[in-house]
Amino acid sequence: MRARVLLRLALGVVLAGALLAALAVPLFLTPGLATTWLAAEVNLRPTASIDDPLPGDTRVLAADGSLITDFYTRDRTPVTSDQIAPVMKQAIIDIEDSRFYQHGALDLRGTLRALVTDVGGGAVQGGSTLTQQLVKQTLVQEARTPAQAEAAIADTLTRKIVEAHDALQLEGHLSKDQILDRYLNTVYFGHGAYGVQSAARTYFSTDAVHLTTTQAATLAGLVQDPATLDPIDHPEAAQQRRDDVLTRMHQLGHLDDADVTADTAAPVAVQPGGASPNGCAEATTGGFFCGYLQNYLTGTLHLTQQQLDDGGLVVRTTLRPDLQRAGDAAVVATLPLGDSLAGIYTVVEPGTGKVLAMSVNRQFGCDGAGCTSVVLNDAAAAGSGSTYKVFTTADALLDGYRFDFTQTTSDPYTSQVYKQNGGTRGAPYVVSNAGHYPPTLNLAEALVMSSNTFFVGLEDHLGAIDGPVHTAQRMGLYSLTDADAQTLIADRAGSFTLGPLPTSPLALAGAYATVFSGGTQCDPTPVTAVLGPDGSPLPGVDTSTHCTANVLPAGLAHTMAQVMRGDVESDLGTATRANIPGHEISGKTGTSQNNFSVAFVGSTPEYTASVMVENPDHNQDVGGFGGGKGAQIWHDAMLPILSGQSTADFPPADAAYLGSLAHTTGGGCSFAVGNLQLPC
């Protein structure tokens, strides 16, 4: 027996010497964890670096600073040293490496002891310092293949050499305090929590800086075996391990008699906070906005998904939670969650392009009934009907027409320019009104009442649809692509003004916002800032707004906004359901052919919001017109917002675009749309 012990001891000394000799070999490491030789030996990733910035959650924040969601591969929120409770640091040192501040990267006394213990079984175990553990944890978490993962935890001398060598390298350029902080931000605590901050939130709904002694001891004990010592799933095992930590802290003089007695007598008290939300399917609010944002970040701003998942970024967005909540309630009030018809509500800010809310009577990112992973607010799935008459109107005004332009059109009306099937030959294009309209109307009345025959007649006067198509594009209707425009113009599609083209609700809201901003077109944006882990703007990422002034002359835009108030506020209007007394609201309704979709776009000077109702999967009669479900959703979404604030008035119309409709009296310039008197 004595001979066997001596033999094992001798072998242990030999193995320890082999370890030290291996560490003395000049390995010429690349910046990071593994040399070419070691990478070949243990199949590690050669470019992995233990002192790279730690991967952390990317936090996505609403305009008011509240959390929308996180993006992450592992739930980790790195924190600074002063954001970790001192007792947490002491607990982890006492239980894992009590001589941490006395020894170097390696504790040779502990390593030799472990070698002597394990040599008989041919495996090398134990004796690891916190620095070595940090190396191992990093190798495990950086593993990209099963072979790398297996090599990172293998109980072999080769793996120990890698671990020890990299620990020496690490302690050569990081202080003990820095290593401890990085360890606490790296180590896995179970329940999906990486790092002490995520662990504190997951198990105790608190921050790492506020951890109590018993909480810190519980977390420190978890490191040994996060699965079986989980205080949520295995409270008895967790309590026993916690008490071991507390006892060790007492033995080392870091906890007095009274405290250790009281702390070990208390049961493990968890207050689970759950994992951080991950991705848009788990967004706390605005799932469709989040989906649009993610596409914008990776598409328009050219971030990679890995940057989002591991970059520890902060993304500040334009989402207004109050507008989002109001929109969410409004769409389901008219169309219940999971209805075959989708109610799609989208809000932008005129003059900036900020996307303020996106609501749909669906859940985003899930499977099954009532779910979709398509951002319907930005998808061009259905036509928006007579909302396109605004583009024809704007082009006519740019071409010298005025709102007093009057014509008489029959019903049905036979076009003198456009053909039923496009081109220049064949049967003429014939159009009817949806209801009864006076045959003689001026442009202001026709826009408010939405006369189909008048607007095809107006297209006849213009002679081609080139102008209205290009005006729509300049106003920001980006779902009308250049290819679409070329096809429409080549086909001489007289139906353009009736809006059969599949239209993005966001593009529609943005294009209308050009009118309500006084003629400034702004590309929609969901982002105000993308910050790196250090809190500074991420280099190369342009989050500025992109606006073009004077797309429409200000006077023209103001006049259109005033006239379109008639659609909501006058007796001629088709969207009177959207009216909210005490606020100026301008807008336009639309209904596609066969009632397969309806739309309404309404605006105050502060908010432009589109509503589209459609079945995004197949054609379905949605029932009614844009002034029904569309205007109702808009009203219900805006009522709680506008009731709590005053809103500005639209600027007066420009008499130059009104012609004979403008009247100057002692009270100033005014004009009428139906029973509504408007300023000019």
Automatic annotation (TrEMBL):
Which Pfam families did the record assign?
Transgly (PF00912), Transpeptidase (PF00905)
Query: Glycosyl transferase family domain: which residues?
Result: 65-250
Q: For this protein, what is any one GO molecular function term?
A: peptidoglycan glycosyltransferase activity
Where are its TM segments located?
A: none
Q: Which UniProt key words apply to this protein?
A: Carboxypeptidase, Cell shape, Cell wall biogenesis/degradation, Glycosyltransferase, Hydrolase, Multifunctional enzyme, Peptidoglycan synthesis, Protease, Transferase
| GO BP field | cell wall organization; peptidoglycan biosynthetic process; proteolysis; regulation of cell shape
The family database entries (SUPFAM superfamilies) matched by this protein are listed as: beta-lactamase/transpeptidase-like (SSF56601), Lysozyme-like (SSF53955)
InterPro entries, per database record: Beta-lactam/transpept-like, Glyco_trans_51, Glycosyltr_51/Transpeptidase, Lysozyme-like_dom_sf, PBP_transglycosylase, PCN-bd_Tpept
Highest taxon of the lineage: Bacteria
Task: State the GO CC annotations.
Answer: outer membrane-bounded periplasmic space
The Penicillin-binding protein transpeptidase domain extends over 344-636
Spell out the reaction equation it catalyses. Answer: [GlcNAc-(1->4)-Mur2Ac(oyl-L-Ala-gamma-D-Glu-L-Lys-D-Ala-D-Ala)](n)-di-trans,octa-cis-undecaprenyl diphosphate + beta-D-GlcNAc-(1->4)-Mur2Ac(oyl-L-Ala-gamma-D-Glu-L-Lys-D-Ala-D-Ala)-di-trans,octa-cis-undecaprenyl diphosphate = [GlcNAc-(1->4)-Mur2Ac(oyl-L-Ala-gamma-D-Glu-L-Lys-D-Ala-D-Ala)](n+1)-di-trans,octa-cis-undecaprenyl diphosphate + di-trans,octa-cis-undecaprenyl diphosphate + H(+); Preferential cleavage: (Ac)2-L-Lys-D-Ala-|-D-Ala. Also transpeptidation of peptidyl-alanyl moieties that are N-acyl substituents of D-alanine
- Recorded family membership: In the N-terminal section; belongs to the glycosyltransferase 51 family. In the C-terminal section; belongs to the transpeptidase family.
Q: What is this protein called?
A: Membrane peptidoglycan carboxypeptidase
- Organism from which the protein derives: Petropleomorpha daqingensis
Taxonomic classification: Bacteria, Bacillati, Actinomycetota, Actinomycetes, Geodermatophilales
